[in-house]
Design goal:
Elements: H1 10-38, H2 46-66, H3 70-82, H4 92-109, H5 113-133
Helix pairs in contact: 1-2, 1-4, 1-5, 2-4, 4-5
Length: 146
C-alpha cells in the first residue's frame, strides 16, 4: 500500500492524492446513505448530504498539504479561525455525521485508508442499528437520529 511518507516525486504525489481522495469518497458514500435513510421531513438537509461527501475530500487534501509542516498547520488554523460558519445544524445528531466525515478525511489523508473504511463501516452500522431499534426512545420524545 502507498503511504504518504513514501511519496518521493510529482507522479507519486499525484497518484497518492488521487488514491487518498477516492478512498475518502468511497468511505463517505455509505455515511451519506445512512444519513438519507435516518433523516426525513424537516430534519433532512440536502446540503448536509453534499457536505458529508465533499468534506472528507477537503480534509484529506488539507492533511496531505499540512503533513510534516508545523508552519502550514498553524497557517491553516489561522485561516480556519477567520472563517465563520453561518449554517447551523438542524439536529445535534447531524454533528456526528460531520465528525464522521472529518474522521474519514483525516484517515485517508494520513494514508490509513483501511482505518477510514473501518470507521465508516462501524459507525454507519451503529447509526443504523440505533435508528432501527429506536434505542433510548421514550414515549412522546423526539428521536435522536430521526
Amino acid at each position: 500500500m502507498v503511504r504518504a511518507e513514501h511519496v518521493a516525486n510529482f507522479g507519486q504525489s499525484v497518484f497518492w492524492l488521487v488514491v487518498a481522495i477516492i478512498a475518502a469518497v468511497l468511505a463517505s458514500l455509505p455515511v451519506s446513505w445512512v444519513y438519507m435513510a435516518v433523516r426525513s421531513g424537516e430534519e433532512y438537509d440536502q446540503s448536509l448530504v453534499n457536505t458529508i461527501i465533499v468534506l472528507p475530500m477537503v480534509v484529506t487534501a488539507i492533511v496531505i498539504i499540512v503533513q510534516n509542516s508545523l508552519a502550514l498547520a498553524f497557517s491553516l488554523a489561522g485561516i480556519a479561525g477567520a472563517v465563520r460558519f453561518r449554517n447551523s445544524l438542524k439536529s445535534s445528531g447531524d454533528a456526528l455525521f460531520i465528525l464522521l466525515a472529518v474522521a474519514i478525511g483525516l484517515s485517508a489523508g494520513i494514508g490509513a485508508i483501511e482505518l477510514a473504511a473501518v470507521i465508516s463501516i462501524s459507525l454507519n452500522y451503529t447509526f443504523a442499528i440505533l435508528w432501527l431499534t429506536e434505542y433510548g426512545e421514550r414515549q412522546g420524545m423526539k428521536r435522536y437520529l430521526a
